[in-house]
Amino acid sequence: xxxxxxxxxxxxxxxxxxxxxxxxxxxxxxxxxxxxxxxxxxxxxxxxxxxxxxxxxxxxxxxxxxxxxxxxxxxxxxxxxxxxxxxxxxxxxxxxxxxxxxxxxxxxxxxxxxxxxxxxxxxxxxxxxxxxxxxxxxxxxxxxxxxxxxxxxxxxxxxxxxxxxxxxxxxxxxxxxxxxxxxxxxxxxxxxxxxxxxxxxxxxxxxxxxxxxxxxxxxxxxxxxxxxxxxxxxxxxxxxxxxxxxxxxxxxxxxxxxxxxxxxxxxxxxxxxxxxxxxxxxxxxxxxxxxxxxxxxxx
Amino acid sequence: xxxxxxxxxxxxxxxxxxxxxxxxxxxxxxxxxxxxxxxxxxxxxxxxxxxxxxxxxxxxxxxxxxxxxxxxxxxxxxxxxxxxxxxxxxxxxxxxxxxxxxxxxxxxxxxxxxxxxxxxxxxxxxxxxxxxxxxxxxxxxxxxxxxxxxxxxxxxxxxxxxxxxxxxxxxxxxxxxxxxxxxxxxxxxxxxxxxxxxxxxxxxxxxxxxxxxxxxxxxxxxxxxxxxxxxxxxxxxxxxxxxxxxxxxxxxxxxxxxxxxxx
Lengths: 299, 263
Fold this sequence. Notes:
Number of helices of chain A: 12
Strand content of chain A: 15-25%
Radius of gyration of chain B: 17 Å
CATH superfamily of chain B: Thiamin diphosphate (ThDP)-binding fold, Pyr/PP domains
Low-confidence stretches of chain B: none
Shape of chain B: globular
Number of strands of chain B: 5
CATH topology of chain B: Rossmann fold
Largest interface: A-B, 28 and 30 residues
Largest sheet of chain B: 5 strands, parallel
Distance between the termini of chain A: 37 Å
Mean pLDDT of chain A: 95
Number of domains of chain B: 1
Number of domains of chain A: 2
CATH architecture of the largest domain in chain A: 3-Layer(aba) Sandwich
Largest sheet of chain A: 7 strands, mixed
Mean pLDDT of chain B: 96
CATH superfamily of the largest domain in chain A: Thiamin diphosphate (ThDP)-binding fold, Pyr/PP domains
Helix content of chain B: 40-55%
Oligomer: heterodimer
CATH architecture of chain B: 3-Layer(aba) Sandwich
Structural class of chain A: alpha/beta
Low-confidence stretches of chain A: none
CATH class of the largest domain in chain A: Alpha Beta
Distance between the termini of chain B: 17 Å
Strand order of the largest sheet of chain A: 2-1-3-4-6-5-10
């Protein structure tokens, strides 16, 4: 997904002279075209994420719109206070592009997981959070980010899933089954696993990809929570992520479904390591795991 | 050197702190000459006009914001009405530097943020082919924060000559002596080893500070000036007495402070 986004970046930087690309020494064989074409509007600040975000704030102060690229775990956690104070407090429209969502870094282990990034950023005022679930929704999310004027974080997974739909905006049904009682709400790479799970069950379940996690679309949620009595939230983030937001939304809006279930990794970084498939199995995020939950809730 | 304006600034900030009961007067008093010298050395009209290519000043030691506000007031960037709102409910002159206050570039308070942001502004201005300058005031205890050194290292590497940092070395942090906790010295040598020009001055000698600003203009490298200062400077019983990191002068203390600044 990131390769496709980076193919798009030079065009956006040609169109918008205020875009300034910053990175924290990552993106080998990916970011070079940006550096070659825009030497005055691109910079590798080194392995220094606090500085990366501080510099981004300074660039906004000087009239630029920075795009900050780094691996999510470093971008979000190492620089959290800078994102809070230097970006969100000032409502500076810096764009944070974080790669390696969820367990994408696999056997590199816990220091490189991004399973708590949404929960970390979500409480910060002004920030917009996106977790695109397909190439098309990534483009739609990026379009939306470019149009608005707040700090934004895009959590980019390693999935290259294409749903061949060009949605006018992020957030859409991947499967809309009119007679279904169960709705799976998911984001990022977990859309793929959720779709596979529904296939295993021969339908009767709808799947909604919530590409934009913050701000929530309240009007949309009212429709979804009214139409579906049983909702399962699938994400490769601890349940401090979208599930947590939806629970809050439910209580604030008084539209309480019969069931609101989380399928998310338990809050434990784990002792053992493994590749993405192994970790998804370990944490109960495979299509089979999701299918079991759907079956149980629908029974 | 004309000392009177700096006494005016000190009188102003003593009144602000007395009226508000706010803390950090010692830190504000130590940076008065640094702040005043910087604003004397730059085009205040451009700042007032919000010119995108104005020089920029970042107070990284945001807890000393009473000092910054008093300097801004002295230079006509904060009004008489506004300065009286310091620390008051429902106003924007907060107890740490706030970008909602007039002509404050950036909100600070958590330490170690000013230098990276200032470097970003300097990078942006250089990219726009502007010769605008960027000034930062940090504390010495603040240099314990590692984020400073990320910015210092990169600024040296980038030869960011438009960036100038003043270290207000008053030797005291919240808990006591900065160097008892973790020695930050030799600060000048450290900056030089990160490819900056660096010098040391008496941080209460406004003319000397202005001299460093003039000298650094057009420099090929960023410049650091280690300013030897006294926390609580100008009020005898506050000088080097860290209780004034916390306390606001009231009653007899206030009268005595005002009397000392009147002479």
